[in-house]
Amino acid sequence: MIVVRASGYLFDHQICYPVWEASNAQLSHWLETLNLGGVILLGGSAAELLLRTQQLQQWSKTPLFIAADIEEGVGQRFSGATWFPPPMALGEIAKSDLPLARKYAYQMGEITAKESVKIGINWILSPIVDVNNNPDNPVINIRSFGDNPKVVSELAKAFIEGAKNHPALTTAKHFPGHGDTSNDSHLNLPVISHDNERLEGLELVPFQAAIDAKVDSVMTAHLLINAWDKDNPATLSKTILTNKLKQELGFNGLIVTDALIMGGVAKFADSEEIAIKAVEAGADILLMPDDPEMAINAVYNAVETGRLTTERIDESLQKIWQAKQKLFNHQKDNSSVYQLSQKEDRKTVKNIIKDSLRYSDNLPLNVNTESSKRNLIVVDDILNADFLERQMPAFTIPNLLGYKLQLVDQNTFNYVLEDNQETLLQIFLRGNPFRGSAGLNETSKNYYHKLFKKSTIKGLIIYGSPYVLDWFKTEVKLDIPWVFSYGQMAESQAIACQKLFNLSASKLTEMSQNLGDVFI
Asked: What is the rounded CA–CA span in Å between residue 44 and residue 70?
């Protein structure tokens, strides 16, 4: 009933988050002695992960769940595999063509599950079925399919249906709905004050759709839902997990908590009490407890004292065993890991990016070949901009056109105001866990106002949140050529730059032989 966090890298010196990720000695000891249920991985390449998952399964006496937060495809977390744009890109396509968006969601689910199985992941912590109807939501944001519960339902069902072609579990999250929060449950406990009618008519709709589509598991949210339980976060609420999810919605699959080290629940009680209350509430899997040995002892002692019954434990064990039989009672896929990120899969990614692209009517941006120009790229945090590398299209394509790179983050770009060169402005900004906010901060808003008043900004590309684009369209006279892409990866950069400058693939190839097929 315990799933722990571990590094996807093979060696201890590569561990990125030592507070959360155990050393190999500690991890192997836990797996050999505690009979853990599984591991959730982050970090490493897809090829490396194949070795890592084999290693973990060999250490354990019981076949393990190997889970990963791969909401945007395996390549989102493990380099080399297919990386999709965020789910809201599909919601954008659904506004004009729901059948096409459903087709893409099905393909996304199928490709994600196919690649997961090839590298040893068997539990996909996706799709997100939260309805993001709060533009200021700092943590869900473009991770959601959108703000329409019917569209979210349709796309979530399609994703689940696609994933069912391969032996991997799917997960609907975050129950009972994290879409209308203005703070991040990784940091604090959000409070939802909507009445029962609103919750059942909006937040619960996609969860019911996912259950009807036979989703394998549901992940809880660390939220306080006043209409249902004023005293306990949903993760620790029997009213919400047992009465609502199991009995009213009819879900009989695995219930997994969101990470128990998150501030939204960790600040509520001590770690032993959190583990007991989660099981009392109806959770089958405790994800990332602060200390797995402590969590096991706490639940064991609660059974010994009669607070928890053996029947409650047996109910979870039966569901866990059934899920693992589904995963391990099948013919092993012996195909090569080199079959990851196939050409047709990358083509699907490019089609989604192109079909969800938004842009102004006054394209293209005409390049002044006689003046000096700068390519001003603003990121949220330079130290956490994994989507940017030296040869990324956001750098290389403008450079071919004479734009000189200037890279800053939104807290340190005040000095760029002194530069009067013609400027291409590229902004990378989206909601993400632990960020604490979803859009532009007040300081950066002031800087953008000053930049646009100088009339040096001649073109704009925004990667990530459509709510950032909405701010520019509302607050700044946006009469310059602009392009918006939900994705931030290399393919999104190339497609956005090509659109802004009206550059064909053949033209780019002519300009530079250094741009590979992945970018064009």
From this structure: 13
Contacts of residue 328, defined as CB under 8 A and 6 or more positions apart, other chains included, come to 63
Q: Is the pTM of this model over 0.85?
A: yes
Please name the helix (run of DSSP H) or strand (run of DSSP E) that holds residue 248, with its range, or none.
none
Residue 239 in tokens: 């009213």
**H/E element, 41:** strand 38-42
Q: Which residues are tagged catalytic?
A: 186, 258
The span from the CA of 72 to the CA of 75, in Å, is 8
- Helix (H) or strand (E) run with residue 34 in it: none
Per-residue pLDDT of the chain (520 residues; tens, 9 = 90+): 999 999 999 999 999 888 889 999 999 999 999 999 999 999 999 999 999 999 999 999 999 999 999 999 999 999 999 999 999 999 999 999 999 999 999 999 999 999 999 999 999 999 999 999 888 887 889 999 999 999 999 999 999 999 999 999 999 999 999 888 776 666 677 888 889 999 999 999 999 999 999 999 999 999 999 999 999 999 999 999 999 999 999 999 999 999 999 877 878 889 999 999 999 999 999 999 999 999 999 999 999 999 999 999 999 999 999 999 999 987 566 556 678 999 999 999 999 999 999 999 999 999 988 889 999 999 987 777 777 777 899 999 999 999 999 998 876 776 676 778 899 999 999 876 555 566 788 888 888 898 898 888 999 999 999 999 999 999 988 899 999 999 999 999 999 999 999 998 777 777 766 555 444 4
Residue type, 24: N
Residue at token pair 């407890």:
289
CA-CA distances (angstroms) from residue 140 to 20, 146, 147, 154? 22, 10, 11, 18
CA dihedral of 86, 91, 96, 102, whole degrees rounded to 10: 90
- How is residue 471 written in tokens? 């701010």
Nearest to 154 by CA among 212, 196, 197, 201: 212
What letter would DSSP give residue 363?
A: P
Query: What are 34's two structure tokens?
Result: 């505690």
